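Notes from the 1:1 (GR / supervisor)

We went over the backlog. Supervisor wanted to see one worked example end to end before approving the batch request, so GR pasted a single chain during the call. The sequence is below; no edits were made to it. Supervisor asked that the structure be written out right there so they could see what the output format looks like.
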Amino acid sequence: MKRRAFIVLVGGSAAASIAWPLAARAQQAAMPVVGYLQSRSAAASAHLADSFRRGLREAGFIEGQNVKIEFRWADGRFERLPAMAKELAGIPVAVLAATGGEPAVMAAKAATSTIPIVFGMSGDPVKFGLATSFNRPGKNATGMSILTATLEPKRLGLLHELVPRATTVGAFVDTKFPPAESQLQDLQQAAPQAGVTLRVFRIGTDRDIDAAFETIAHERLGALAVAASPYFDTRREKIIALAARHAVPAIYHFREYAVSGGLMSYGIDIREVHRQVGRYTGQILKGAKPGDLPIMLPTKFEFVINLKTAKALGLTVPSGLLSIADEVIE
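Structure output shown during the call:
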């Protein structure tokens, strides 16, 4: 081989060896980044993050291969969400998935009016200024309105049916949750129809939870309705344990509670919500506009009874309730 040819060959090889890392870095830089903003904690919501990833996969995106996910968890401390949302918007992310109810969704809305937002929230997104209509949102946000904060009367009725002797029922309402006042109004209107008197506990801290259960025990309240809230979700194990310690029959809004030992739950399948949020996120990454994607509503509601917990509380579940339960945990 001539010396000139050898130098060209070596030079070409060297150039190629430099070019490949540059190409790889360019490809890596081109990978879209999705922000995942969650009011709850990572430990309590790993299954929800997995459902979100599943939805992304269904849309053709796999974490680490062709999409990167930046997770931000507020651990039930809603005051942290605005800064987290601004941080994600500043990256900037290609899509911002805001889950865990209104606190995360409104923080995302405040952080950006241009980055697409896919939400999972309890109430009416039109009322909160996120969309002009359900069928055609028209702005930079879409997702699912899960209605769980509007189901408090239904849960109170189910609780009274299981514990008819309970004439006074405690009600936990999260003071920092935006729909709290409407939840409380719904409960107060439903209480006379259910034949019960409400003892309302406005909860904002762990200390409030402890104090409320002490009062429940002291006043011998017959049952407890825990209103939907992402803060309560992050304190799920604590609330269930205290309800068991004080032998208080309680109803909750997600299946997670009944699976963890709570007496019963009625609400939507939260895993399905996160899957749909992931699927919409993937569609937007492919070029769909959030303003053109209709806001979804849940089509399935789950009523779950934990018979083991009922037995521990000395309760006999009426056959009528068992017949309408979607799942009975034994």
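Supervisor's comment: Residues 79 and 103 are 9 Å apart (CA to CA).
Batch request approved.
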